[in-house]
Amino acid sequence: MTRTLKLTGVAAAALVAAGAASAQDVECPIKVGVLHSLSGTMAISETTLKDTMEMLIEKQNEAGGVLGCDLEAVVKDPASDWPLFAEKARELLTTDDVDVIFGSWTSASRKAVLPVIEELNGLFFYPVQYEGEESSKNVFYTGAAPNQQAIPAVDYFLEELGIEKFALLGTDYVYPRTTNNILESYLMDNGIAEEDIFVNYTPFGHSDWSTIVSDVQDLSADGSLVGVISTINGDANVGFYKELAAQGVDAADIPVVAFSVGEEELSGFDTSNLVGHLAAWNYFMSADTPENEEFIAQWHEYIGDDSRVTNDPMEAHYIGFNMWVNAAEEAGTTDVDAVREAMWGQEFPNLTGGTAVMNTNHHLSKPVLIGEIRADGQFDIITQTEEVPGDAWTDFLPESAPLKSDWQELECGMYNTETETCVQIKSNY
Amino acid sequence: MPRVLPIVFALVLCACAALPGTGRAQQDDAASDLQSILQTHAEEVADPGRRTVGAVIDDLVASGLPSAATFLERWADREVYLNTEDGRFYYAEDEGETYALTNIATGEPAGSAPEDAVEEIRPNGGVRRVIGSALVQFQLSDPDPAVRSDALDALARRPNAEQLAPLRNSIEGEQDPAIRARKERLAAILSARFADSTEDRIEAISSLASGLSLEARASLSQILETQQRVAESLPEDANIATELEPGSDALPAAEAYARLVDEGLAPAAQSREEIKAALTANLADGRVGGVPVGQLGTEAGRARAYAALAEAGTVPPLVTDESRAEALASHVFYLEYDEPDPAITDAARTALDEVETRVFLNQMADLGLDALSLASIYFLAAIGLAITFGVMGVINMAHGEFIMMGAYTGYVVQQIIPDYTMSLIVALPLAFAVTFGAGVALERLVIRWLYHRPLETLLATFGISIMLQQLAKNIFGTQARPLTSPGWLDGAWVVNDVIAISNIRIAIFVLALIFLALILFVLNRTRLGLEVRAVTQNPGMAGSMGINPDRINMLTFGLGSGIAGIAGVAIGLYAQVTSEMGANYIVQSFMTVVVGGVGNVWGTLAGATLIGVLQKGIEWFNPSNTLAAQTYMILFVIFFIQFRPKGIVALKGRAAGD
Amino acid sequence: MTRKTFLTENRSIFWFLLALAVFTLVVTVLSTGAGTGAISTSFVKTLGRTLCLMLVAVAMDVVWGYTGILSLGHMAFFGLGGYMIGMWLMYARTEIIVAESLAAAAIPPTPQEIHDAVGTQIFGVVGASEFPAIWFFASSFWAQMALVVLVPGILALVFGWLAFRSRVTGVYLSILTQAMTLALSLYLFQNDSGLRGNNGLSGLQNLPGLDAVPQSLVSIWFFWGSAAALAAGYLLFAWVVSGKMGSVIRGIRDNESRVRFLGYHVESYKLFVFTLTGIVAGIAGALYYPQAGIINPNEIAPIASIYLAVWVAIGGRGRLYGAAIGAGVVSLLSSWFTSGGAPDIPLGFYTIQWTDWWLVLLGVSFVAVTLLAPKGIGGLFDLMGRTHPVMPARVGGYGPDKGARRKSEGEEEK
């Protein structure tokens, strides 16, 4: 017994020594790339994430940094321009030699960054809910996959609200398109007829919503209960919700569940007329846990404004960043491949309670929350599920159903379980 | 649902501890069995679900307790709390660290409980709807008209057969004429579906034909609900709506065949993948059905291999196009009404057709209103530009940024003056003043040096535009800023269930009219207008008549910019205020001016109307794609310019310039 | 006119080409792919793209500075060229990936299967799997290359014909071209357009079949290609704006009606210039986007074309090298400022961060250039020309306004 103990002790000491040795390989300071738009239409959402990253890095430096090094944020502004995302990512990896990048909001910008990250073997953390159908070796998806946000929300509509007719309204780009595709297929599996699903796409920054809202109201003319699933992104939401309020669309008549509207977006307008409409996320600021309280306090202190809100992608960055720090400490280096392997199975407490786990398909297991808008711009959490593992390839589209991703066992992000072949190692951009 | 778990856990614990044991709880229970009803369903009350909550509500309603209705109401309003310490339900009020509890049965204070021991119960929308319908019978004769009105809303949302009798009974004693009329309408709607005799139903149905409310249409559509069926030949006794022709739009051939397969009336067709899978499964010695694998890289090779396999009986024979056509031809597809009585469905069909014609006309009117509203927004955005561009011949690319400046002025004023009405009254003239000043400054500093170089004005003002946009970003941040409209502009003007338009849009429309009148007045009836027109037509001559062209240009430019500022406040009220909002309007505004005809206010009005109506019209044809509407609208403008290069209202003679 | 006189008459061409050759050589020697590695691959790509922008700016200068048509739509042609090359790049690369993965199955794939799988791969992102009709030629490199020239060319021809025929001129024409590029970008933003809507085409930097070649080498190839295209384009346009053709189009700029009264068919000249520059813009785009790696409809939004005009104006209209220099300087400065390369300036009470203030600076300097130095950066060469007779005199005028020099042809370059 004593001998084993001693042995383990020696082993542990050796490990520590090895860790220390490799830690010395790390070049100080460790650079962390932050790739969020600070201008353009997406700046409304992304600027906050840049601030969040700077706060997390500052806090980590106060706590002693990583592997004995200070962290340094390298911030680039890709200006809501997808090609610029690719260019800035390349700059970060080649000119600035960052060890990890946290960034992007829209899927289009992530798809633009992907080929660069894969080519240069970078490490990228993507914090926003997205449409799935992707699993890159070099990307960790800390936002929700469709089965962690869209599908539970639709289940809620079907089960709890008894909705019979759906209006899928979205901004015209990849996330709403793919999500709506998955949802259409899912709804039809659940017995909703194709003609009972109304789909509409509007451009970014759309402001003239009166006709679309009337169209939606008209859907209930056959006596069905109508629900709206909104994947409207960015500042177009302001006009949309103002029009909903103006036309008196009551949440009891036509509930709207949004996937891109959180506390941050609601701070742009008066929500007293929107009470009862819904949003589905993995985090709400109103979550009642000590971790969340501390996080909010930190945020308010950092930003110097107590009226600023926190939101889901901020939590995703919080979890992603802390996981990366722990993985780097565990790997004893910031080398991309070592950290990537150390990321699998990383656990970190959610701000909403429970523990997030990074799976080998590079998606998190997180709980799903559905909240109703309150008059003060916050959400009342009305349901919260167990942790749901993120599914890279949806089960509800026939061509994706046989696909799975496992970077540990299969070393493949797009593995066809029927033919048992790896369809592709690099992503389909 | 983990959120539920702790509650349930606590409940179980408490139930064990509290229910049989402590005397106080039992005394309360004896005093009122409301709490005990709730306790038997404790789990469901604490976390109700739409499908399961019915049992609790039935028990509560059946108990006949007077406090049950109040409880239901307050339950839906999220005023019921669970005290996890004793597992009982209370009404509670937040008092900071603690909650003040109220007994649900007696309404008397019941002490207080610490914050973390009290759980707010949050019934979701579905449950609230079920509770609402259950409450209808209590509320139909409630003394408060608002409550009666709410009850009718709940009833209209989910009409069911049981509600018909109480509704009819409540009509008699109804004093409020509006509510009484609504009750009668609802009674007709319910009778159409749930009345006992066919005559009553048909009578109710025909009375619905004259309205066009959503509720009436919903009721009629539900009577006319159909199921798609397939059979060898049309059944005699069924109430058939229509027969469907396979291969028509209503029933594409592929769908019809899939239906046959579902019913087991035809074999499933093999997809390309299935054929491939079958071939793979029968691969042996590098050959499939005698065909070498190398030849399977073509459709023809695969067909041969599959045919060979089918011949051998290892796979089902290929479903060919001929066999599919044959299967379709030997079956009939039809829609059958759920309602077995043809008399009722016929009456409902006639009534619905009549309603739908009226609905269509009303929809057109609604679309017209929307188009008018869009036109007035375009007009407001473009009229300032029409003055600077049309009257002065100056291109101001920064016009959109003046709109933005106006909107931000409105936002800043709201930060200082919290009263929305007051702040709007202050913001409108202030926005005019700010952008007037900015316009004058721009004219003095930049534009007057470039009067003879219109293309360079365009570029220089573009420089100003990107500068102003970035400055706004630096000052106000990239977040959309709220510009909240006063309460009296909330809501909408509702003509009927189809025609409605929000008050803000009406206000913008009125604003646009005011500015039209104002500008016409200034240009045609004032000294300034006369001088502006003179300078426009011949600056040199005007100068020699004692008019100072510099001053006039400055004022005209200021006026145009000032109107942009006011347009900014108006647009901010219904859409988002961001640093980029101006850019969204600039190209549209230019096109409005160009289409309308330069140098004429009426032209701008015509241009705005044309573009607004056109855009809404295209949207109506293709409702699921708003972008297409904008694209085709621009294409139209490009072609329009081909035929009327000078716009709708073209100036003639010397004023036309060139 | 012999070739010798063409070059001696326009000595600026020689100096420009010499400068370009030296620049190319220096970058090659310092590059990661073919030299010492002092310049990173991403910067080589930035420089290569800048060369493409310079080429389209030269084309813009011919349209605007020489012919007097302020086109606010030339980036539409540039983008279309990019889309055409992008379609082939995406198709060919995906086809290789798909063929490899399907080859693993027991039964060899049919051509139809490969085609369908490519469709699923490319359009899966936007929730479709069918190839739209416009992808018909995507599998053929040469057809798609021809489309790089044809699509922008035909669009420019049709649009130009419609616009010039109805004598739309001046500001109206500018707005009309702006409407064209807006309509095109809105159309491409739709998923139904078949070019993946807002996502656009991506992964274009990976050349099909050349996975083994590192990007450092690919980048230098494209850099050479862009330099060669710029040189060829510069020569072509220098030839176009010299001689009689050049005199006529400058005449159109200065007074269209007079040229018409002199018996020239003004519309044909304008249409020729408009279409030719549109084609060159398309070629520049086809070289640009494989270096950028992604193209989406935002690239042809009206703002892009306005920036193009800004570059030309800052560089100096009416002289080809001015436009090229303007595009190079402004776009490089722009990426330097926005990437945080410029140091912050602390003012004590406020720190100027250039990422926030660069656009303000650009706007102000742009207004200043328009007002105070309408000759732009190119004007500096005039100043130098006085002390160094070797430097070329300017080749063009700068606008039809009152103070513009209406020079007599043939007397200038003595």
Automatic annotation (TrEMBL), chain A:
Signal peptide: 1-23
TM annotation in the entry: none
This protein's record includes keyword Transmembrane: no
Pfam families assigned to the protein according to its UniProt record, in alphabetical order: Peripla_BP_5
Top-rank lineage group of the source organism: Bacteria
Keywords: Signal
Classification via NCBIfam families: urea_ABC_UrtA
Descriptive protein name: Urea ABC transporter, urea binding protein
Naturally occurring in which organism (per UniProt): Salipiger mucosus DSM 16094
UniProtKB/TrEMBL annotation, chain B:
Signal peptide region: 1-25
One Pfam match: BPD_transp_2
Transmembrane segments: 371-395, 424-446, 498-523, 554-577, 589-614, 626-643
Compartments (UniProt record): Cell membrane
Topology of this chain in the membrane: Multi-pass membrane protein
Gene Ontology cellular-component terms listed: plasma membrane
Organism superkingdom: Bacteria
Chief localization: membrane
GO molecular function annotations of the record: transmembrane transporter activity
Family matches, as CDD domains: TM_PBP1_LivH_like
Keyword Disulfide bond recorded: no
GO biological process per UniProt: amino acid transport
InterPro entries: ABC_transp_permease, ABC_UrtB_bac, BCAA_transport_permease
Alphabetized UniProt keyword annotations: Amino-acid transport, Cell membrane, Membrane, Signal, Transmembrane, Transmembrane helix, Transport
Family: Belongs to the binding-protein-dependent transport system permease family. LivHM subfamily.
Protein name: Urea ABC transporter, permease protein UrtB
From TrEMBL, chain C:
One Pfam family cited in the UniProt record for this chain: BPD_transp_2
Membrane topology category: Multi-pass membrane protein
Protein name stated in the entry: Urea ABC transporter, permease protein UrtC
Subcellular location: Cell membrane
PANTHER family: HIGH-AFFINITY BRANCHED-CHAIN AMINO ACID TRANSPORT SYSTEM PERMEASE (PTHR30482), SLR1201 PROTEIN (PTHR30482:SF4)
A GO-annotated cellular component: plasma membrane
Keywords for the protein's UniProt record, in alphabetical order: Cell membrane, Membrane, Transmembrane, Transmembrane helix
Start and end residues of each stretch annotated as Disordered: 394-414
Organism per entry: Salipiger mucosus DSM 16094
Transmembrane segments: 12-34, 46-65, 72-91, 141-164, 171-189, 220-241, 268-289, 295-313, 320-337, 357-381
Coiled-coil ranges from the UniProt annotation: none
GO molecular function per UniProt: branched-chain amino acid transmembrane transporter activity
Domain of life the protein comes from: Bacteria
Biased composition (Basic and acidic residues): 402-414
